[in-house]
Design a protein that fits this description.
The complex is a heterodimer of chains A (78) and B (274). With 78 residues, chain A is mainly alpha-helical. Chain A has one domain. Chain A contains three helices and no strands. Chain B has 274 residues and is of the alpha/beta class. In chain B, helix 3 links the parallel strand 8 and strand 9. In chain B, the strands form two sheets. Chain B has a seven-stranded mixed sheet with strand order 10-9-8-7-11-12-13, with helices on both faces. In chain B, strands 4-3-6-1-2-5 form a six-stranded antiparallel sheet. Chain B is globular, with a radius of gyration of 18 Å. Chain B has two domains: 92 residues, Elongation Factor Tu (Ef-tu), domain 3, CATH 2.40.30.10; 128 residues, Nucleotide-binding domain of ferredoxin-NADP reductase (FNR) module (Rossmann fold, 3-Layer(aba) Sandwich), CATH 3.40.50. The chains are: A mainly alpha (78), B alpha/beta (274). Bound molecules: flavin-adenine dinucleotide (FAD) and FE2/S2 (inorganic) cluster. Flavin-adenine dinucleotide sits at the interface of chains B and A.
Chain lengths: 78, 274
């Protein structure tokens, strides 16, 4: 059975009880970014983002992963 | 061609036991593998149960690893899949894939006192540990089992819990007073406070609703338990069960692979995504 699903939907992680470990848009964005740039690198030593910029072009709310990556890099350097 | 890891094995429901009545009732299913392709498991591991045309649900294996003839699953009716399972009859076929996840390190607990604290359907994941500890009674010190449910009718494994008395100290609780109730009235963490447990040479294992786990751990720490002496299981929503889909992770930790069993020493440093 295949259904449309996405880690940015609240239902993606919602428990049966209604409790949701990633309740807010912010928590889900954090998951998306950290998955690509942090967790996957730590677990498998592979970068998940090639920097192609397609998601920046199409993002309806202007989220810029390159800018986020640069901010993370800066923060890590401090 | 390589084997499809999502392909379930066919299992037959050999027996069903009603545990708790009601809209969010609990039934225990005993399943066997008619094709002889059953699997071994460890205490704390889970399996994906599927109902064809409905979907899959991750469920803890509630029978002890020593039980080879069948696997036991105690399931609360909560939604699409679990309702479909509740409507099944003995002889019906479900899909099972697994076992998934890590285990309770029971072999490291020999000679120690064990304190189990469960609430609601959260008794199921720790039940194989309790069963294994009691079956090897001489290997362990004192065994205490705390269990609470909303009302006396919501207590799962009622007879089996009574049968534990003698081998273990059993402390039952219900949320509000009822006529004829002999046990404690109040929430599970309060029952634990009422019967303080010594941290000396002890290990505590808890599973239940997140809010219960939170206060149980707080009370255990208050009694002097160290972070390494407290174990729990994390039941994040799961779909793949094999560390691919990214539903269950707390930070970089994939609960379906590295969990569901964690010590508080591990958990307290992880992002609070559970
Ligand atoms: C490691 C692990 C072990 C587990 N062990 C057990 C066990 O031993 N026994 C057990 O009973 N359970 C166990 N569970 C929980 C079990 O997996 C779930 O209860 C089950 O998957 C629910 O599936 P369902 O299809 O029946 O419910 P679903 O149909 O998915 O729905 C679940 C509930 O969520 C509600 N819901 C769904 N979508 C929304 C929405 N958008 N907004 C608001 N509400 C919504 C539904 O109304 C329903 O009440 C375990 C879970 C994990 C992760
Ligand atoms: S359930 Fe898919 S990653 Fe854990």
């Amino acid at each position: 059975m295949r259904t449309w699903d996405n880690c940015q939907f609240p239902e993606f992680t919602m428990h049966t009880s209604g409790h949701n470990p990633r309740e807010t848009t912010g928590a889900r964005l954090r998951q998306r970014i950290c998955h690509k740039l942090l967790y996957f690198v730590e677990n498998h030593n592979i970068q998940q983002c090639t920097g192609c910029g397609r998601c920046i072009t199409h993002c309806p709310v202007g989220i810029d992963i390159v800018r986020i990556a640069n901010v993370m890099e800066e923060a890590a350097g401090q | 061609m390589s084997k499809n890891i999502y392909l379930p094995k066919l299992a037959r429901i050999a027996g069903i036991k009603d545990e708790v009545p009601g809209a969010r009732g609990i039934k225990t299913f005993f399943v066997e593998f008619p094709d002889g392709d059953g699997f071994e498991h460890e205490c704390g591991q889970c399996a994906m149960i599927s109902v064809f045309g409905k979907g899959e649900s991750m469920i803890s294996i509630a029978s002890a690893p020593a039980v080879k003839e069948y696997k036991q699953f105690s399931i609360m009716r909560t939604g699409r899949v679990t309702t479909a399972i509740h409507d099944m009859k003995p002889g019906d076929i479900v899909g099972v894939r697994g076992p998934y996840g890590n285990k309770f390190p029971l072999e490291n607990w020999k000679g120690r006192n064990l304190v189990f604290i469960g609430g609601g359907v959260g008794l199921a994941p720790i039940w194989p540990v309790i069963q294994t500890a009691v079956a090897n009674r001489a290997d362990f010190g004192k065994i205490s089992v705390f269990y609470g449910a909303r009302t006396s009718r919501d207590i799962m494994y009622a007879e089996a819990l009574e049968a534990l008395r003698g081998a273990a100290d059993v402390h039952l609780s219900i949320d509000a007073p009822e006529e004829g109730w002999q046990g404690f009235c109040g929430f599970v963490p309060a029952n634990l406070l009422d019967k303080p447990q010594s941290p000396d040479n002890a290990v505590a294992v808890t599973c239940g609703p997140p809010i219960m786990i939170k206060f149980v751990i707080k009370n255990l720490i208050g009694m002097g338990f160290a972070d390494e002496q407290i174990y729990t299981t994390i039941e994040n929503k799961m779909k793949c069960g094999v560390g691919k889909c990214g539903r269950c992770n707390a930070g970089k930790d994939y609960v379906c692979v590295n969990g569901p069993v964690y010590s508080w020493a591990q958990l307290k440093d992880m992002p609070q995504e559970y």
